[in-house]
């Protein structure tokens, strides 16, 4: 395993880490024992960072992480998120009383005294610009409740604004072969500002595994079903904002990246990690097999300059026009 510093903090985290949205809920059926086995295998292979949120399974993902990391609090770093259990547009959701309660609830579920990275969970731009929530996070940091804080954002504009907030140490963004815009301007600025980049949805909700076809279906409780067109939250969180059938078609055209790299998923994440401004990728998982598949990314051969140019041209001319929603 290789490790990268999270911006200019003292947190050195595994470049392939894992998100826990899938084991908490909203990705169809999941099995707790398989999830715990997967978490253990990841840690055995050197993974020392996991991303979660208080709304993943209504806190269940945090509880699973608590079980898996018991006694390893100094070695295994956890990032969690808050605000989406309430009305994200209501300023009252970000008062000291509200945020402190969110924090205490997560600490209780995680059975920890401190959260390594506490992130605002995709708040509206108006809340970010108001700025009061950052004052609350500063207080929690001073009290030792949180080690560092950051923001999970939906758009480049939101991310750019957050870089101007002195205490922000991380941005969590959607970035993959189907969603390359953040690399143009946001990532270099974040690097210069000493802010780490956590890449979520590196496989575009599974499109970049190459395993789907136009007739693939998803369970009723899977966001790839109930949010396919942005019905419940930002459309970019599902299939990178692409219409599903178009995404399948585009993924098929990218199948060449797997040649000599094992499979499309590993190749896709290798492409992300070749960007020096990125701290880590946080793919999801449900079981040990998926942990092992994703960790295979570490040993995948790099892309040539010609291949990188080809991928950029593909995005510019074949993908970009089909992305829906602000990004």
TrEMBL record:
Entry-linked Gene3D superfamilies: NADP-dependent oxidoreductase domain
Domain NADP-dependent oxidoreductase: 16-315
Cross-referenced Pfam families: Aldo_ket_red
InterPro entries, per database record: AKR (IPR020471), AKR2_Oxidoreductase (IPR053135), NAD(P)_OxRdtase_dom_sf (IPR036812), NADP_OxRdtase_dom (IPR023210)
Range of residues in the leader sequence: none
Top-level taxonomic group: Bacteria
Any one Gene Ontology molecular-function term assigned to this protein's record: oxidoreductase activity
PANTHER family tied to this protein: D-THREO-ALDOSE 1-DEHYDROGENASE, NADP-DEPENDENT OXIDOREDUCTASE DOMAIN-CONTAINING PROTEIN
Name this polypeptide is given: Aldo/keto reductase
